[in-house]
Design goal:
It is built from three helices and 25 strands. The protein is mainly beta and 409 residues long. It has two domains: 9-49 and 66-93 and 193-406, no CATH class; 99-187, Elongation Factor Tu (Ef-tu), domain 3 (Beta Barrel), CATH 2.40.30. The strands form two sheets. It has a 17-stranded antiparallel β-sheet that branches. The longest helix is centred in the first third of the chain and has 10 residues, at 82-91. The protein is globular and about 90 Å long.
């Protein structure tokens, strides 16, 4: 008898065409979830207890009723693949394809040239950033055909000035270069929360490779996505799912999905990330955590063990930021209920172009602020709980609760 190893497993994620019906063999895209230690998914049954009074003073055996699926996976943040599919699902939206290029300068009247400093990109010509080209604060962009100090270096847009001609970047990733009439401007793909959500369901296969057996979990919707970035650690994610049913496959029919794809990029870390907090490059930050949570439930129905759907409703976005205390500025933000924006750009190691994943929250406030009176070692660390909401439509901003960007195709 073969005993299954704990680590020799494969979890495969595929979108369903019909909610609750297994995606077809060979369906694409089929992404392998690059997970760390994870609870995985579990079929749950409602337990119906009998209230019968027996003269032998024992209880009557209970019954099992309606089904549901619940569980989660954890992993290290990487670019593309299952990560992008899960993000798209929790946002209940569709990735907007990258614009590569958005435009190419040609010394003409519209987009004459681009000029650079360490943290600005200035557009000359009749075109404008937001109005003409749809660039938004929080977008991740890069330029080309300029030179080694500019080409393919990705940056997050921190602000667009009142003239709609000057982008300020998060941090100072660029260099001083005069007006270049051949420069290209590119915008990575992004996903925002739409006015009308798109609800996705998935078939998830948990394949035990040693025993050659699979479980198919059907009608699974993403109900949560957690992101955590701390210095000296891999940036991590966690995703929760709620589903409708499970099918057990036998030897010979496992695995169900036979052509899965696995991304190969290295995991992302916080140490070489770029962060933005309250209109300035973030410094002295020691932790960044976000939690996207969607309220969801199934519905028991007469005549069937299976709910007709997973009913997902309101999404909340909360989180926390920890950092070395340098003054009372954050207390002032908290006391005044000041709204601000928050961003994080994570990139793969190596030469440019580097794979990248960004998240930007345009409307955030501090919900609580805690700091110890004192301690015996190290600096004083303060912890800010934050909460986000949809940004009111404004020039240069998406009307969204969050903006994710990715360099993956």
């Amino acid at each position: 008898m073969t005993i299954q190893l704990a680590s020799d497993v494969s979890v495969r994620l595929v979108r369903e065409s019909t909610t609750g019906t297994a995606a077809l063999v060979g369906a694409t895209p089929c992404h392998v979830i690059r997970m760390t230690d994870s609870p995985g998914l579990e079929l749950k049954r409602a337990q119906v207890q009998s209230k019968e009074l027996r003269n032998d003073l024992t209880s009557t055996l209970m019954r099992l009723a309606g089904k549901s699926v619940d569980g989660s996976y954890n992993g290290e943040l990487t670019v593309g693949g299952a990560t992008d599919m899960i993000i798209e699902s929790v946002m209940r939206s569709t990735w907007v394809a990258a614009s590569t290029p958005k435009f190419t300068c040609d010394a003409g009247a519209a987009h004459t040239s681009l000029a650079f400093t360490a943290n600005t990109v200035t557009l000359a010509g009749t075109d404008t950033w937001a109005t003409t080209h749809g660039v938004r604060v929080g977008d991740v962009c890069y330029c080309g055909a300029v030179g080694a100090t500019i080409d393919n270096i990705k940056f997050m847009v921190a602000s667009i000035d009142a003239t709609d001609k000057i982008i300020t970047t998060v941090g100072s990733p660029l260099a001083v270069v005069g007006a270049d009439t051949n420069a290209t401007f590119n915008v990575l793909k992004k996903v925002t929360t739409p006015t009308t959500p798109t609800r996705y369901s998935h078939t998830i296969e948990q394949y035990d490779e040693n025993t050659d057996l699979s479980e198919l979990y059907l009608g699974c919707r993403v109900t949560g996505f957690r992101l955590s970035a701390k210095p000296g650690e891999m940036a991590t994610w966690g995703a929760t799912f709620m589903g409708m049913d499970r099918t057990i496959l036998v030897v010979g029919t496992s695995p169900w999905f036979t052509t899965p794809t696995t991304t190969t990029g290295l995991g992302l870390i916080a140490d070489d990330s770029t962060a933005w907090f309250n209109a300035a490059a973030a410094v002295n930050i020691t932790g960044f955590d976000l939690d996207f949570a969607i309220g969801a439930t199934t519905l028991p129905i007469l005549g069937t063990f299976v709910s007709p759907d997973v009913f997902d409703n309101i999404m909340t976005v909360k989180g926390s930021i920890t950092g070395a205390r340098t003054g009372s500025a954050n207390d002032t933000l908290f006391d005044a209920e000041t709204e601000f924006n928050l961003g994080l750009l994570l990139q793969e190691p190596g030469d440019v172009p580097r794979g990248a994943l960004g998240v930007f929250l345009p409307r955030v406030k501090i919900a609580s602020l805690a700091k110890p009176a004192g301690g015996s070692t190290g600096p004083k660390i303060e912890t800010m709980a934050i909460e986000a909401a949809v940004k009111v439509a404004a020039t240069g901003y998406d009307a969204t609760i969050a903006n994710f960007t990715s360099s993956a195709a």
